[in-house]
Amino acid sequence: MTMTSGRVLRLLICLATLASWAARLDACPACFGKSDDAMAKGLNAGIFALLVFVLGLWVAFASFFVFIVRRARRTGEAIPGDTNDPQHN
After folding, report:
1. Can you give the residue ranges of every domain in the chain?
2. Do 43 and 30 form a contact (C-beta atoms < 8 A)?
């Protein structure tokens, strides 16, 4: 696969732009060592909020399947993979 001159030029421009930002890409205070700074506390709060959100999604996903199994048992329908499933045997 060969790159056209336009693609090479765009790649070089992107690399030059990234290289010019190198001085600005220092570590933030949260990573650099000031763990009691307001930015570090905000970062930790954001991580905690995302973890709670993801955990909530996993619980909702699992509870949906619990609901489906309970509903199938209540109505007498066969549960896929169960030993009483006619398609299982």
Report:
1. 10-75
2. yes
